[in-house]
Amino acid sequence: MAELEAVIGLEIHVQLATRTKMFCGCELSFGDEPNVHTCPVCLAHPGVLPVVNEQAVRFALRIAAALECKVAPRSIFHRKNYFYPDSPKAYQISQYDIPIAGAGRLGDVRIHRAHLEEDAAKMIHVGESGRIHGSGASLVDFNRGGTPLVEIVTEPDLRSAAEAASWARLLRETVRQLGVSDVNMEEGSLRVDGNISVRLAGSEELGTKTELKNMNSFRFLERGIEAELARQRELIEAGGKVEQETLHFHPEDGSLHPLRSKEEAHDYRYFPEPDLVPIAPTEAMLREARESLPELPAARAERYREQLGLPEDVAALLAADPETAFFFERVNGEADDIEPRVVANWVTGELAAVLRQGGKVANASDSKVEPESLAALIAMVHEKKISHSSGKAVLVALVLEGGDPAAIVEREGLAQISDSGELESIVAAAVEANPEAAEQIRAGNDKAIGAIVGAVMKETKGRADGGEVNRLIREQLGA
Amino acid sequence: MSELLALTALEAHRAMVAGELDASEYADAWRGAAAGDELNAYLWRDEGGDAPAIAVERPSIAPVAVKDIFCTEGVPTTAGSRILEGYEPPYTATAVRKLLEAGAPILGKTNMDEFAMGSSNENSAYGAVLNPWDRERVPGGSSGGSAAVVAGGLAPWAIGTDTGGSIRQPAALCGIVGLKPTYGAISRYGMIAFASSLDQCGPLTRDVSDAALLLAILQGGDRCDSTSVGLPKAPSLPDREDLAGLRFGVPGDLTSHAFDPGVRAVFESTLEKIESLGGEIDTVALPHAEHGISAYYVIAPAEASSNLARYDGVRYGTRAESSGDVIEMYERTRAQGFGAEVKRRIMLGTYALSSGYYEAYYGQAQKVRTKIAGDFENAFDQVDFVVTPTSPSVAFKLGEKTADPLAMYLNDFFTVPMSLAGIPAISIPAGLAEPEGGGPKLPVGFQIAAPAFAEQKLLNAAYALEQGIGFDARPEGVSNG
Fold this sequence. Notes:
The complex is a heterodimer of chains A (479) and B (481).
Chain A: E1 4-15, H1 54-66, E2 77-81, E3 91-95, E4 104-106, E5 109-118, E6 122-126, E7 137-141, E8 148-154, H2 161-178, E9 190-200, E10 210-215, H3 218-237, E11 246-250, E12 255-258, E13 271-272, H4 283-291, H5 297-308, H6 312-320, H7 322-334, H8 340-358, H9 371-382, H10 388-401, H11 405-412, H12 420-433, H13 435-442, H14 449-460, H15 466-477
Parallel strand pairs in A: 10-11
Antiparallel strand pairs in A: 1-8, 1-9, 2-3, 2-13, 4-5, 5-8, 6-7, 9-10, 11-12
Helix pairs in contact in A: 1-4, 2-3, 5-6, 6-8, 7-8, 7-9, 8-10, 9-10, 12-14, 12-15, 14-15
Chain B: H1 2-6, H2 9-17, H3 23-35, E1 42-45, E2 64-67, H4 94-101, E3 106-110, H5 144-151, E4 157-162, H6 168-174, E5 177-180, E6 200-205, H7 208-218, E7 247-251, H8 252-255, H9 261-276, E8 280-284, H10 292-307, H11 326-337, H12 340-353, H13 359-382, E9 385-389, H14 405-409, H15 416-421, E10 425-433, E11 442-449, H16 455-469
């Protein structure tokens, strides 16, 4: 059988970090006591009417600008009708056939649309199943009900689980940098669902898709899609057919379970929301959205590649997080005579490693190392004033304590041994102490040189230049 | 005392301003009158200090009877439904708040067809309202309680809501004035929704001047209602004495249909009265208006099916006992809480919005609605007003039409087109007619419709016609008025 190709589209719900809810004046919250952020409107008392949150519209326009979407001159809200206790009106106000944002693109993935809607309330099912069926009782917390959401729907342009997860990360960083959402997957302010199908490689037709929900981390997103792709491939290869259904991913064991039909969509009886007038963004609002855009990761990575000559992976790594990118640019600005590639390697390599070791400190800007100090340190290594390994030791000190790298080198006695006589005698002693290795080197076994270099480094506490030590060993052994 | 209550709200207001009438004493007198309700017109009455949240410390205008569809903080608000029995809203509707701010105390909450669905007030879960002219007859609906209290001397004036005729038709059947303003003139916030794109608050009053005064208090855009805009200018009291230079269009497409001969006689004599006041009568075409009822009974139930979905027993109102899951609790609560007409319309509306039927029903009805609005625009190029009888018949007997929903729906034949077009229309009492089958004469309403936001012009013409007609009949035994 020909190879089955994965076809993946994503639906991303972004909770907007506005001050108040989508259609009423209640403040947004996370983790507060249940049902304290409620009012007649978001509890759907008789007679109440929704009023569109203008800030949410502005945030949606910012997302639309970042995703290069076409903005509808007049978009409208619809009612999506369904009975469920998380929806006090028994309908969700959402956008249907005329969303605020139409076709766009982020990276290699086309955006189908993005629309505004309100979040449902949070259900807590008491009992073993954790779901409404079979639970002893269900509780509703309306604090979340009515939180503004932007739902972003991609075209089915992704071709693997890893690609989907990596693109979702790019989207998260992009939205984060717009300042419109906390984009925290664990807290649910970013929720990613997958539309997943497979087809014969090279085919243009789309296979039957399933919808995959409840993946609350990028790791689970990748694992969930992976599992579903495997299930579909197995099914088709065994001669079966994929049924259109919604599947719930269980992170505990990586299993997939279909949602019971009652919990699923039936006929939502969409019709235009008569309580609201169309959203018609003014030219000023559109301009404000465009002008408020920071440089986004994709554009920044491109600039690093083209203007600084960084390799693609390093550029993407640096560009993803704006604070890292900003730090890198400051170091690079201070390090005049050093190639950006070298600076980038220090930031993504040595510095990132030290920061990871620290555990708590996740970002260079939160540590004590100043961009000027790092630039000076890189220069010292580059000019061979200190060895590379001494450089790493100084960097640890800089991250923890800050300060001037030259002073640290002085204090720790890490300056490279520049007196050639001193180094020659240390090398001679090391050769003498390792006769076997010396013999092998003379016999032409180059690998044996490591033992003598190691001895020299141990003696000098890493202050010797590795290249120079190598040269002296060969010179003394006539190799 | 009855002399005091004989004043119109405007006359009383003028007397208060002149220092000749103590507003608090006047309000108390009306509380006394309201306490004598034998029409089942009030569902709740303020017997003095019963509702601190809506108390008016220094009244300065006549107290108002409010249809029980307006949320009123701390006061039972049922919309005539069992499902909201015992519900006391935590907030007050904008229209009611405006009354309170104007210094008008709330006399009480008036009975109505359940969720404003009905034309006879027989669909109230709390019993039918009796027509003060003949207690064996209906007062019309759905604002039947509000019409009955004004006609029956139980309130100086009242507010109601009109979705397809629910202010105008009961006003006609009770011999009073009822105004449905332009859609968007008055905030709908806090008004329990029946059909959101049609519902509009309006006054039910003894005369046109009172309607203008009440409209002036109620109108205005509201931040809490995105569809409200208010009137371009606050209405002033009408003072026009003649109709010279004004053209009144009779839509043959509607009036050629059969309706009560007695109503037709009054309609025709009113047209003559218009001419005698200097007005001109023309014929206008409203070719799509006769399909109004069909379109209305798709659109209104469709919106209602969604608006009424929130009554599920979870957060407020009655909850049925249930041993099963939450879905079963919903089903039982709604089965027990809603009356037959409400259930009928929820089912009609749910069907009309269903996938596969949407275009054939809801989509098509919206197209008809657009056509009807276009008809009126064309008509208003030729004439200043469109006039019709308000209702095809005078007040009918209790129980007469309950078995035949379609016959009941046809009560709205003349009023629904204006609702679909969103334009203002007023019903004024134009005379008396014998009901079909004989009996004492009953009031007949005359409807005048105007272009959107032309309320001032409408009130001026209605006032001139009202003066010309000089309708002064009152139900037997009613001296307050």
